[in-house]
């Protein structure tokens, strides 16, 4: 079985253990449960959704981030004055800060949805639905 999947699910299982002490204990996830999760269509769909979000956003971030040093080092395209002495370099640099905050907020929102889906998969395994 995939070691990363096992360690992630083990962490989730351990974080839930304190909540279970006062509640009715649900079935523990076994190695077969982890295999069932990894082979389930729901889990594969979740991984696909996460990757289809994370990969393009990461590529966009890296391209946008490295464009500024490349353009300022090898061209004079961003030396155009826009407002008074403010050039496109300053606007592009400010846009990077704005882009970082927007991507961060978007990622947190998406990650919360992914976490809810993962939790529902784990609950199904604990309830014996797999």
How would you describe this protein?
- It is a single chain.
- The radius of gyration is 22 Å and the shape is elongated.
- The chain has helices spanning 3-20, 31-39, 41-74, 88-126; strands at residues 81-83, 86-87.
- The protein is mainly alpha-helical.
- The protein has four helices and two strands, in the order αααββα.
- The two termini are 17 Å apart.
- The longest helix is centred in the last third of the chain and has 39 residues, at 88-126.
Number of strand segments:
2
**Mean pLDDT over the full residue set:** 85
Relative helix content: over 70%
- How many strands, which pairing sense, and closed or not: the largest β-sheet? 2 strands, antiparallel
Features:
77% helix; mainly alpha; single chain; elongated; 130 residues
Describe what is shown at a glance.
The chain is 77% helix and 4% strand.
Topology (elements, then pairings):
Layout lengths: L2 H18 L10 H9 L1 H34 L6 E3 L2 E2 H39 L4
Antiparallel strand pairs: 1-2
